[in-house]
Design goal:
The protein is 45% helix and 6% strand. With 156 residues, the chain is mainly alpha-helical. The protein is elongated, with a radius of gyration of 23 Å.
Length: 156
């Protein structure tokens, strides 16, 4: 590895638009790995510019730091990711994104159908949860979790 392959934390921050403190945070969380000089200064690989950019994009998409770390673990260490690397990550993320989109669409559709009701309670809602029938499937926001009102039978 050449000295020109390494950049200081300040340069990484400048190149990515991320604060130095955020880069230290990412390092502490295991998302980045710094090399240390003899004087203890952090040095990063130039490839880490893309890793930080990926972190920022993934956070904006709503991925957790654990999800981001799992995806970064699939990237090659010490070199910029190539098209095949990104394709693998994109395929894995697509399923998660599609699941989130479906949940948001279900939420939007429920709101559209109930917006004028005024009851503000799924326990009392005569339209979507008559007699609290959703509780038969378990705790939590059953319709948001994917249960459908028509799939739950009325209680006697």
């Amino acid at each position: 590895m050449h000295r020109t392959d390494l950049i200081a934390i300040g340069e990484l921050a400048a190149r990515t638009g991320v604060a130095v403190s955020a880069i230290r945070f990412y390092e502490a969380k295991g998302l980045l790995a710094a090399l240390r000089t003899g004087g203890g200064q952090r040095r990063f690989l130039r490839a880490d510019i893309r890793r930080v950019s990926f972190i920022l994009i993934a956070q904006q998409m709503g991925l957790s730091l654990d999800d981001i770390a799992a995806e970064l673990a699939r990237l090659p260490a010490g070199r910029n990711p190539n098209a095949a690397d990104w394709a693998r990550i994109s395929t894995a993320l697509r399923a998660r994104i599609d699941t989130r989109i479906a949940a948001l669409e279900r939420t939007r559709d429920l709101l559209d159908g109930c917006i004028g009701c005024g009851c503000l309670s799924l326990k009392k809602c005569a339209l979507y949860n008559r007699a609290d029938k959703a509780s038969q499937r378990g705790a939590g926001p059953r319709y948001l979790l994917g249960d459908r009102a028509g799939e739950i039978v009325e209680r006697d």
